[in-house]
Amino acid sequence: MSAAAGAVGVGFIGAGMISDTYLENLTSFPDVKVVIIGDLDAERAAAQAKKHGVSLSGSPDDVLTHPDVEIVVNLTIPQAHVAVSRAAVAAGKHVWSEKPIGVDRESAHLLLAEADTAGLRVGIAPDTMLGPGLQSARRAIARGDIGVPLSAHTTMQYIGPDTFHPNPEFLFAQGAGPLFDMGPYYISALVNVFGPVASVAAVASRGRDVRSIQVGDRAGTEFPVEVNTHVQAIARFESGATSDSVFSFDSALPRAGVIEVSGTEGTLVMADPNMFTGDVKITRGAEQTASGPQPLWETVPVAGTEGGRGLGVLDMARAIRAGEQHVATGELGFHVLDTLLSMDESAAEGRFIEVESTVGDIPLVPLDRDPRQKTL
Questions:
Q1: Segments of the chain with pLDDT less than 50
Q2: Which residue in 157, 369, 172, 210 sits closest to 276, CA to CA?
Q3: What are the beta bridge partners of residue 211?
Q4: Where's the Gfo/Idh/MocA-like oxidoreductase N-terminal domain (predicted)?
């Protein structure tokens, strides 16, 4: 492995749809250098390398054995996340994984234990939490702009990813569905605001047992649905705050990015947690109009530099060099997975589930942090 100085070498395992946005950003951040792209489909890896100006491509093993790779970016399907991340740790690499960290508690816990023993870091998406949208909302809440935060409401519903993804089967398989595919954005945001989740309860349903691909060369191909596609959940946090959430692939009415935090002195509407920035607004009351009471809105200035997907990898890289804590830690990723699994179990068992894991304080991102500034 290269000496611990200068830009941090990054290798990709997984060259699918999501790799484009990661590569667009990470190849533009001067503090990291994308060394190699690996995939089980070598041709796909080569095509992505050529498209994004990366000099090397090959297999996952080629990434794991490359001496200049310090961080492996794991963009495989959820069922493979832990196996690939453990292989990276065994090869002496830090690892950043797409969400969720895994599909079960036991293997995810083993990954974190092995990384800790090896003195290596694990980072888990989403890294949208590092963006100006969520960070500005957190600062407003910390300032007391809505008093003491008490509760939150979130909604993420639409008809489903089979309408736009050419290979959507994995999004309806174990470890995915709306709860595990989109839930990490919302639960991560709520944990950033309220701290660790203490207990959850949920109900769930499955609109259809079979779906069909609607775009691409495989349009019309049917596939089984393995998971619940509509989940309604409530959570109680260790702080005493509560939240209610909808996660659905069964709604013809799209409504996503809804995340509202109510406090003793007002309600804050956050930016979409699936995005890095967006509007942040506060209402502390309403005015009477002919059509009824309408909220009076104040805009919260959104400050900071938007970086896009890959920002968490960059944050890890800089933290590795500085010997500091990175933001989207494996500990946080595990707590989010534990919470989502507890919601899934609650829906199956019809009872409240205590969340066993916890997570420490999550640091704010400095306002002057610029992903496109060379600091290493």
A1: 1-3
A2: 369
A3: 223
A4: 9-123
